[in-house]
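Q: What would this complex look like in 3D?
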Amino acid sequence: MKVIVDLAKCQDHGQCAIAAPVVFQMDEEGKLVWDGSPDESQRLEAEEAADVCPVQAILIQD
Amino acid sequence: MPAHIAVVGASLAGLRTAEQLRTAGHTGPITVLGDEPHLPYNRPPLSKETLATPGDPSPEQLHASVAFRRRALVGDVDFRLGRAVTGADLRQRRLVLSDGPEIAYDGLVVATGLRPRRLSLPGPVAGRHVLRTLEDCLTLRGALRPEARVVVVGAGFVGCEVAATALRLGCRVSIVEPAGAPMSRVLGAQLARAVQRHHERAGIRFHTGRCVAGILGREHVSAVDLDDGTTLGADVVIEAVGSLPNTEWLAGNPGLDLGDGVLCDNLLRAAGADRVVAVGDVARFPNPLFDDLPRRVEHWSIPADTAKRAAATLTAQLAGREPDPTPFTPIPSFWSDQLDLRFQSFGSPALADEVRLHEGDPDHLLGGVLATYHRRSEHVGTVAINLPPARQRELREAFTALTPAA
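A: Here is my prediction, written as structure tokens for the whole assembly.
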């Protein structure tokens, strides 16, 4: 599974970090950091994070 | 034969329900019917990024920038777009379309959402805008030229977002709001006045406590008259005065309560109908997190939350099982970007009778402000302005600790 974030769209809303805290985190400066190839066990949460992104900046690829 | 589920409405709530029906184990056919010509797309950017993107994009390009990705999960869902459902017979389980044959179904999802309320004032039509659809956005983009005189009617969140975007584009922007300071129904008077001062310093002019009495112009809007005799020159009038639920197509079915959206129980079953659920901002349901009074909730998080629960309820019903009786207690949340301010809301601040300021200075919103909202002392909402996103989890989790009212 690949997690791709369109940083041109991302506006650091942080909703992904609530939905999938293992894959996405907001750093101390409020910027997004994420795991681009998370373990398959994270799929449901990663999909949920993509769904709740207000600007739909997250793409999950198989 | 496996049951056929019809989803009426092809926006966020309709899409999420189709996905969740598959997740819940429904294997029969799913048809999603929408009156707009587009596959489901994300509306919040229409008042912000999409409205402000430079260039001259086609409707297709604009749609591509906000379209929801189509998950493999819904690869076999039949999207029928560009045709309105104009009627329904819930006893016979049939839908009537604006054109084409009737559609029979076994289970129905009501996801028809809202449309903008319009000002009922005579005068020219050209130059008057609303903002709900991609086409609305495209038309308005063309009108928001630098130096254009823009009058936004309604200082709710949509009105304020559009005003902020218009200001960024170089327009001269006024907001007319009869009720008082902007967004005061949600923010409360003190914070609302602080936001008004902030926006005024940026250059937005407010006319609060005033109503629009007339719209002037021959072929095209040229000015707006207020009820105190003021006349505001206007090239563009944006009507942001709330929304109406799209439920007319359900009229004539005895037992339904369409007083304000579709009345549902806590599991999102439409009252007075069998195997019918409602989702998104057209659904009026009680949330035991707050009380037992059914309400419609126009927050962005609600379509996904209601979709999940309604899909589980309907799938169980069609399989002849009792739906999961666990109380449905979604935590409403939304955000708003206006100029250099980002609002983040959790819970239902509009229910509050008391606002408590915890952090920050209302005269310096950029530095970050945190307020909690209380009803009879009970915490019912939180609003953060310009707080770091890393704080959101903690703000949201304050609600998961709430005990649902008995």
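A: To summarize the key features: The longest strand of chain B covers residues 378-385. The interface with chain A takes residues 16, 42, 44-45, 49, 66, 68-69, 71, 300-301, 304, 335, 337, 388-390, 392-393, 396 of chain B (CB under 8 Å).
Q: Very helpful, thank you.
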